[in-house]
Amino acid sequence: MIDRGDPETLVAVFRGHLAPATHDKHPTVFWPVRSPGETEPRDTEESGIYLYPDRFGGSAARAGGTILVIAQGSVLINVRAD
């Protein structure tokens, strides 16, 4: 995750497998992120990206399409394809 600013500041890095989006966590659109070998969530809050439609500020591809940047409020979420 990146904090917006000049310059943008890296605040967190997560690794895992991005699963398809769901609407199971209404009102968010939710993309589960599973650690390698993880099959089921271990607690109430699942690891993943929670997109709140009322805070969504847009998205864009960077680095030739290998990075998806999602703007949500004052946070930028970078999803990198491996």
Placed side by side, the strands forming the largest sheet appear as 2-1-8-7-6
Give start-end ranges of low-pLDDT stretches.
none
Can you summarize the main beta sheet? Answer: 5 strands, antiparallel
Radius of gyration: 13 Å
**C-alpha end-to-end distance:** 17 Å
The helix count comes to 0
The overall pLDDT average reads 83
Proportion of residues in extended strands:
35-45%
CA-based shape: globular
Number of domains: 1
Descriptive notes:
The chain has one domain (2-80). The chain is globular and about 40 Å long. The protein has a 5-stranded antiparallel β-sheet, with no helix packed on it. Strands 3-4-5 form a 3-stranded antiparallel β-sheet, with no helix packed on it. The model has no long low-confidence stretch (mean pLDDT 83). Strand 7 (67-72) and strand 8 (75-80) form a beta hairpin. With 82 residues, it is mainly beta. The chain is built from no helices and 8 strands.
Topology:
Blueprint: E1 2-3, E2 9-10, E3 17-18, E4 29-34, E5 48-51, E6 56-62, E7 67-72, E8 75-80
Antiparallel strand pairs: 1-2, 1-8, 3-4, 4-5, 6-7, 7-8
How is this structure best summarized?
The protein is an all-beta fold. The chain contains no helices and 8 strands.
List keywords for this structure.
mainly beta; 5-stranded antiparallel beta sheet; 82 residues
